[in-house]
Amino acid sequence: MLLVLAAAAPAHAQIFLASRPKPEFTIGPLSVRANVVPAGGPIEVSLLWSLVVPPNVGGAALEQDLYLLWPGAVDGEMVAGEPDPTLRRTVEERGFQVTREGRLPLSARAVYSGPQRAKPEPLPGGAPFVTYTREAGPLGLPTPATWIRIPWTPQLVDRSFLIDLRMRLARLRRPKQATWLENFLWGERHLVTLSFSDVRTRATFPMYLAYRDRVIHLADDPSTLTITFADSDHLKIHEVFPGSSQRRTSESRRRTEIVSTYIDPSEGLRPQVLIVQYGYFSGWQSWAPVLFATLFFVLGNVAGPLVTALAKRLGSRLQGRIRIGPRSGAGAEHQTGTVVPRETLAQISPGETTYDEILKICGPDPEERERLNAPGRRTLVYRGRRTVPHGRRQFGWLATVQSWDVEHHELEIELDGDRVRDVQAQVHRTRLTQPNPA
User: Fold this and answer.
1) Going by C-beta distance under 8 Å and a sequence separation of 6 or more, which residues neighbour residue 328?
2) Which three-class secondary structure state does DSSP give residue 396?
3) Which band of pLDDT confidence, cut at 50, 70 and 90, is reported for residue 170?
4) Which of 40, 387, 400, 421 has its CA 20 to 30 A from that of 106?
5) What is the pTM of this model?
């Protein structure tokens, strides 16, 4: 979760301000909704709210325009009408530069609409706004902010209506860093962030500081940050912050998933944030984990014998060219089986040496052959192999080998009864580049 927060986009938020200091009314309920679609592009955001008025406050204290300070540039369907010169003058007097101005759609929604849901009632002139920023500095162009005026209407204090302000935000969604393989297998992942009461940017804090005595606080009515995701059949939500956020399926919109969290009014101007890491996948990407595991299984079974054969081949080649050990240089013999030296053979005398003496002289484990047509006769066979490397260079315990002298020894001792009748010894010598040729 810490990684998610570190990679999240700057939180988009807002604070409401009154025209006069120390407003006696509050905002409630408030709903900040972001609608995410798979197509990408700007995200449509709507704010729905009304005012909570104490019973002892008269109408003269209420009739005033409201202002919304939004940390970021806004876009969307524009309402016909001239820009508000007062808004431009307000931000320019504080040293900001206006980058865009216009009017956003503003309407009133009936809370109780009966059997047929009533359409929103557009408010004439909409909500004029100016988007402004500071001059570019050493760190580049600062993040812009938007100053929005909500004209007074009696429906602001009518509890049977909610005021609806709509806009589109281009920077609310940010791609999450991932490798091309992750994007190919599981699709691109994004981070979408909503927050409330965040005035930490360079463009919003001076405006908040100038009008901090006009901040409209939240009422005790439930207020929420909500993100809706269309096409939930191809949606994968990876992470949600905070952990207390609620995920549910929309009751009124098909194939739509909703993630929401409550805004705690007791937190004051402490930023409260909702972060969702998500991704949309295609049809075949939903099978990616199974296909990926199957591919590794098949490759493992196919490549295993090939790798084993290659490793054995390389190992035998290295074994034939490199010797490691205290006696790895030229003349370092290696012997297998039983090799009987010439001087040992000289101790065997036909007609005199017995079977037990042969076992003491040559070794206790010979191969024995008997002839069925010659009872009492048998043959003892001793086989052995000796390899002698011819080295090139010696580096301590490491030596390179140029070639090998290989000797195959075979000794046959024929017995008649318990005495030696005949002795035959054969030696085959070859020079090889490998000690164990195929």
Assistant:
1) 391, 394, 397, 398, 399
2) coil
3) confident
4) 40
5) 0.64
